[in-house]
Amino acid sequence: MEPLSGAAAAAAAAAGGGGASRPPSFASQTNALLRKNLIFQKRNRKATIRLIIVPIYLCVLLSVLQRVINNLLDKPKYKCGCMCVDVNGTGPCQNVCGIQYSTLDQAGSCPIPNPPEWPALLQVPHLEYRATQDSSESCRKSQSCPAAIPFTGANETLSTTVMQNMFTDSPLSNLSDNASISGILLGTDMPGTSTGFIEPAFISDVPIYVLQSECKSRNSVTLRTTIDAINVQKEIKCVQGLPLWRNSSRTINEETFKGYRKEKIGKGISEVAMAYDFQDSNEKRFNVLALYNSTYQNISYVPMPFGLLRVSRSLNAVSNAYLQFLQGQGSGIKMLLEFTKEMPKQATRLTIDFSSLIGPLFFEWVVALLFPVMLTYLVYEKQHKLRTMMKMHGLGNGPYWIIYYAYFLILSTVYLVLFVIFGALIGLNFFKTNDYGIQFVFFFSFINLQIVLSFLAATFFSKVNTAQAIAYLYIFGSGLMAGSLIRNFLEGGKFPRHWITVLEIIPAFSLYRGLCGLSQYAIRASETGNPGMRWSDLNDHTNGMRDVMIIIIVEWLVLLPVAYYFDYAASVGNSSGLLSIIKCLLRKNTTWRRIAVNEVADNDVHVEMEKLDIIKERETVDQVLQQRNSGYAVVCDDLKKVYHGKDGNPDKYAVRGLSLALPYGECLGILGPNGAGKSSFISMMIGFSKPTSGNAFVQDFSIHTDMENIYNSMGVCPQIDMLWEMLTGREHLQFYGRLKSLTGSALDLAVEESLRSVNLLLGGAADKQVRKYSGGMKRRLSVAISLIGDAKVVYMDEPSTGLDPASRKSLWTAVKQAKQDRAIILTTHSMEEAEVLCDRLCIMVDGRLQCIGRPKELIARYGGYYVLTMTTSSEFEREVEDLVLKLSPDARKVYHLSGTQKYELSKQQVRIADVFMAVENLKRRVEVQAWGLADTTMEDVFVKVATGAQSSDELS
Asked: What residue segments make up the domains of the chain, in order of their start?
């Protein structure tokens, strides 16, 4: 065993001294990961800046669109109308402005100190939608379908009498002024989407209906009246009002719901004018529930200055009918509703708050855009096994969560603060009018929930592309669903509020509901000049902001431990459920005890005599398992791994009952053909996969239950390089060195010596980003990472793959120097590497251990022969064969091609001198082109053992 050089010895002392053998503290892990992430973000700062300024771009875009819209609206078409009027009738006209001179587009900007009065109307269904009792629908052809008015109540007689009192049968010719109009039941089928400070039915071509108990022969008349000095001439048509008794209010609801332009009762669409439930009304108590069709108006759940809801006439009509019931029809006592009108208003400028109008859905997408960014970051490290690599070098879940959660929180906070501040600065009402404290609490609580959702979702993905695709589909799809469902449910006013709260459990829905509330308050502020949402408004349950905040915060607190559990379960490869994880966390460290696992039965039955060296190794394992502190670093006890077949394929037995005992200071080489189970064995030992049965102990810790403790003193050089493309080689070693509790000068010395040992100091390679490394340089860096610090057990899976001869020799020197106080398990296909580095070698074939021992012992055991190679002309092949059989009767031909033959000669039957003499004699008779005599090599042993094992498997 070669001694350490002076510098390497100093590095080893620095790595092993000063308490470095202790597990890294929480603070050292956090410090290492924080420094690494700061470096990574510094290199990735351009992408981060581009992400952060995305909201600024969007705010600028909204501002530009808002200015374009405002410029379009700042035209005479949308300004209050004016006319040149001769006011006094004596002179030239004067320019007078007002609503009476304005179109519908202009009226919205006019000052209205005294709003006009108009008769109250009832909402009547369109002719084609009215409910009808005529199955032939003949009334539709004659345009005489009645306006159905279902009613119910506890007292049918009283209810029927009151309903009959609702209609008057006075001739239509008596309608001459507003007073006469207020005494009858007028209606319109024009939707009241907006008023323009006047009933739209009186300034349109749509006729007005009067509901009577029976229409006479003359069922239409022209009404001339005055509304705010405007002469109005309207056609009034008679429509029969048809009261329909129903047994319950529930029946009325079912009929009207089914009949609303969807299903038919008989053959007619069942839509009614109004409906009543008189409940427990009697002569001394008037208790009525008025039902109306809310789909004819467009008023959101926050009160807005537009939209016409025609329910006042419905309430007045039933109240007047009840009064007639009490006083009698001839009493002359009436409860009249003479007119309705809007509240006065000042002159305004017609504007559309574009940002608030499109805000909820648009801003939801802006906020949710961070979700796929964070998810991609987490899944990238999972896909490239960087998270596992860090964990194998001692990084715990706590530091990982703290650093990444803090980074995501800072990134999200800066992102949204810039969004809100810049949006307010450029004048977007959505941000400017609403209280900044409410916005901060709402957005801050949601981004915390979004971070937790990212961690939770990352456990279910292993590929970045899949995670990105599903994440973007989720944010766009959920946004559209929320915009469709939440807005319709809120504006309809009929969807139960508690079910809306249930929907808000979905994060996208809660975000949309909160944004919708902020948007509506911003629109109201721009329309009325009132302030936006304030803290006092949270007491108003109609806006839903308080409920949304409570749901988001509670959901965040609930999902935080859930996400941490799933993340932990994924990191340890455990998928057996919550109960097993809790048991694993509470269980004390188990040392030197076997775990009872169901044995795996092979499909094949092998009849084979086990080798003495394998039996001896198993006996050593059994002895070690009976004692503590035996000085062995690694003990494998009947380890097995089975990959279960899918789609009808048979199970694959990767490792079949492997038992090994490895002391400190020894390098064990594992040889075997491709598919022998070497990498599967390494994967189980480093925590990549769980054994199917059996157990293994590393420094007295079980790989089933104590991988967290094993990681603290383990180094790994995996078969595939797991490196950050944007970090340098030096930064990689500094990070993993800090994870091994190295600090200060000890860390610098260890990093420098590690780089020198693998030839990464030449040409400034140590300070180049890994993405500029060749495959061989990455491989050397992976080896250096596995050896840095005081890793007592090191696994190297084909460490010299892809290296040139000079780099390979240098790498071998570094490994030999590092193995003095460590246990190293190495897999390789290079026989030369195995002989140079390994104290003991074992050969695996088809998951089984075929032999184990020191290289010379294996050569002596399996290589008790010389290899004679001779090349002659084809006609002399027989003479060569006769010569060999005379030298060694038991000689075995192992190669024959075009005159070249290779034989194995038993050392017990032949002497080297005899071979030379025989060949010299042969040369006198025939032409020998080339010949050679060689001792057995490790490669010959490997080929012999592997071929023999495979032949045995085929025979069995």
From this structure: 45-59+350-571, 76-110, 122-331, 864-935
Q: Give the pTM.
A: 0.66
In this structure, which CATH number among 3.40.50.800, 3.30.70.100, 3.30.1490.20, 3.40.605.10 belongs to the domain 864-935? Answer: 3.30.70.100
Measure the CA–CA gap between 49 and 51, rounded to whole angstroms: 5
Mind listing the pLDDT tens digit for each residue in 750-791? Answer: 999 889 888 888 888 899 999 999 888 998 899 999 888 878
Q: What distance, in Å, lies between the first and last C-alpha atoms of the chain?
A: 42
Please list, in sequence order, all residues whose beta carbon lies within 8 angstroms of the beta carbon of residue 442, skipping any fewer than 6 positions away.
514, 518, 545, 548, 549, 552
Distance CA 75, CA 270 (A): 45
Cα–Cα distances in angstroms (integers) from residue 203 to residues 104, 196, 198, 742, in the given order: 10, 11, 8, 86
> pLDDT tens across 313-354, in order?
889 889 989 988 888 766 777 888 888 888 887 877 766 665
Q: Can you name the residues that pair with 340 across neighbouring β-strands? A: 118
Give the residue from 207, 283, 285, 214 showing the smallest Cα distance to 243: 214
Which residues does 732 contact at the CB level (< 8 Å), separation at least 6? 723, 724, 770, 781, 785
Helix/strand/coil for 473: helix
Yes or no: say if 816 and 788 are a contact pair by the CB < 8 Å rule. no
Structure tokens at 214: 């029976």
Residue 15 pLDDT level (bands cut at 50, 70, 90): very low
Residue 17 amino acid letter: G
φ, ψ for residue 430 (rounded to 5)? -55, -40
Across 99-103, 363-367, 723-727, 881-885, least confident range:
99-103
CA distances, 953 to each of 189, 331, 455, 608 (Å):
89, 113, 47, 10
Cα 343 to Cα 160, 195, 197, 213: the distances in Å are 37, 12, 8, 35
- Work out the average pLDDT over 500-516: 82
